[in-house]
């Protein structure tokens, strides 16, 4: 690999923005300084021209649909889209077909990623009501963590036996990530909606069916159990203002035992957008009110919420275009998450430093990922250059997802990713994939 020298960048790292140069040798950041001269004639020089240089996003929650659901997406197609969107590492969920609920099936997914992933990767092991023995076999140094669906699951992955849940919380050494929605509350609300509307339920009922109360009941129970057992709990995709008060900001992240995540779509959309977007913004948990979105922003900025993720979960346009009761929940987001966050920065919602903290630094700290997530000498060169003044519009022609659509279609972003480096390799440049990268399996300092 030829050395790469990035000149004249606005380097965003650990709460500061400094102007300078970064030298990449092989797969690592070799030097950071106010000015660096090329040391060899074969050095590739990239003039950043004052653009932001940030560590690549580590997305702690994606669904790349492989194996078994590859008509929607594959690890190759979605990791490629992720790299185009400045996401250089991802953690994928276990609810594929078959579900990753045994060590053997989990390693099958790692084998696929080793051959096809453009980005660095890890996978969550899936918990069920009856696989505690398999859970206890998982090596915390080699796997991102354990995913428990405490509501809204496919197949047999709904974990709803209280004794099993407590046993898992008590015995596992893995970081436990949870989807928290109370199934009994949702079923009650759904029955009431069907009685009122029949099968033609308006999409606007979605945040009432999958209500704020359903989220709060489940999240509060999980937190209570984590406190009781001492388990390491990470609650995925908060969607309500009420839930944010369950979390604290009194400790530095590396000392927290209970942490939280928010996703880009819950920061961008509200229930007013259902009228235009319909089932294309049907997610679980549901996009809720403006007051909920405001509460999420407040908790994110005051550090009660620790991470921003995507919950990238593509379905085909045909599937998403069904009536409410048949349209699946989820949507594609990895290609546009960072640029959406920079648009929110432009609107005064969040600082660039905070974006980097929540998308790169904190995932690395929270999951104890080795040598990634920061712009530091000796760290892996997973880097992204962003031009903050290069407006562009999301159209079908520039969407990289296999499913071919985006909830952001028609949206104009002011900022644009110009370069993405994965392990020191320039993978994406000015709208094109330029080098076929091969992501590495993430390792954990646990």
Automatic annotation (TrEMBL):
Protein name: Dihydroorotase
Domain of life where this protein originates: Bacteria
GO MF assignments: allantoinase activity; dihydroorotase activity; metal ion binding
Gene Ontology biological process terms in this record: purine nucleobase catabolic process
Role this protein plays: Catalyzes the reversible cyclization of carbamoyl aspartate to dihydroorotate.
Its EC number(s): 3.5.2.3
This protein's record includes keyword Metal-binding: yes
A GO-annotated cellular component: cytoplasm
The protein's required cofactors: Zn(2+)
Enzyme class: hydrolase
Family: Belongs to the metallo-dependent hydrolases superfamily. DHOase family. Class I DHOase subfamily.
Keywords: Hydrolase, Metal-binding
Keyword Metal-binding: yes
Source species of the chain: Rasiella rasia
High-level lineage: Bacteria, Pseudomonadati, Bacteroidota, Flavobacteriia, Flavobacteriales
């Amino acid at each position: 690999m030829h050395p790469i020298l990035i000149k004249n960048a606005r380097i965003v790292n650990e709460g500061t923005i400094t102007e300078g140069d970064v030298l990449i040798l092989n797969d690592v950041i070799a030097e950071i300084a106010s000015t660096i001269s090329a040391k060899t004639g074969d050095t590739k020089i990239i003039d950043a021209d004052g653009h932001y240089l940030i560590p690549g996003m580590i997305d702690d929650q994606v669904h790349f649909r492989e194996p078994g659901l590859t008509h929607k997406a594959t690890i190759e197609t979605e990791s490629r889209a992720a790299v185009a969107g400045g996401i250089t590492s991802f953690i994928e969920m276990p609810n594929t077909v078959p579900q990753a609920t045994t060590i053997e099936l989990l390693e099958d997914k790692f084998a696929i990623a080793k051959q096809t992933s453009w980005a660095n990767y890890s996978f969550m092991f899936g918990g069920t009501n009856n696989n505690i023995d398999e859970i206890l076999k998982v090596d915390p140094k080699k796997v991102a963590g354990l995913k428990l669906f405490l509501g809204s699951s496919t197949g047999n992955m709904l974990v709803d036996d209280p004794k099993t849940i407590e046993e898992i919380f008590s015995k596992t050494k893995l970081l436990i990530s949870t989807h928290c929605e109370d199934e009994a509350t949702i079923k009650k609300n759904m029955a009431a909606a069907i009685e009122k509307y029949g099968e033609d339920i308006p999409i606007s009922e979605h945040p009432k069916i999958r209500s704020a109360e359903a989220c709060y009941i489940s999240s509060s129970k999980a937190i209570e159990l984590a406190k009781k057992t001492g388990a390491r709990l990470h609650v995925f995709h908060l969607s309500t203002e009420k839930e944010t008060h369950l979390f604290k900001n009194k400790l530095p992240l590396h000392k927290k035992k209970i942490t939280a995540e928010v996703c880009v779509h819950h920061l961008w959309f509200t229930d007013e957008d259902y009228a235009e977007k319909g089932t294309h913004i049907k997610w679980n948990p549901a996009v809720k009110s403006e007051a909920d979105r405001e509460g999420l922003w407040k908790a994110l900025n005051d550090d009660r919420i620790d991470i921003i993720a995507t919950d990238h979960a593509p379905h085909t346009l045909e599937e998403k275009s069904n009536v409410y009761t048949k349209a699946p929940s989820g949507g594609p987001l990895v290609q546009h998450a960072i640029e959406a966050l920079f648009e929110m920065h432009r609107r005064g919602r969040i600082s660039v430093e905070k974006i980097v903290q929540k998308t790169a630094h904190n995932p690395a700290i929270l999951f104890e990922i080795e040598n990634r997530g920061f712009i530091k000498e000796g760290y892996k060169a997973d880097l992204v250059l962003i031009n903050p003044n290069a407006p562009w519009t999301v159209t079908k022609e520039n969407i990289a997802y296999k499913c071919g659509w985006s909830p952001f279609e028609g949206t104009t972003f002011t900022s644009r990713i110009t370069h993405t480096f994965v392990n020191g390799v320039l993978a994406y440049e000015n709208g094109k994939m330029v080098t076929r990268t091969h992501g590495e399996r993430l390792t954990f300092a646990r």
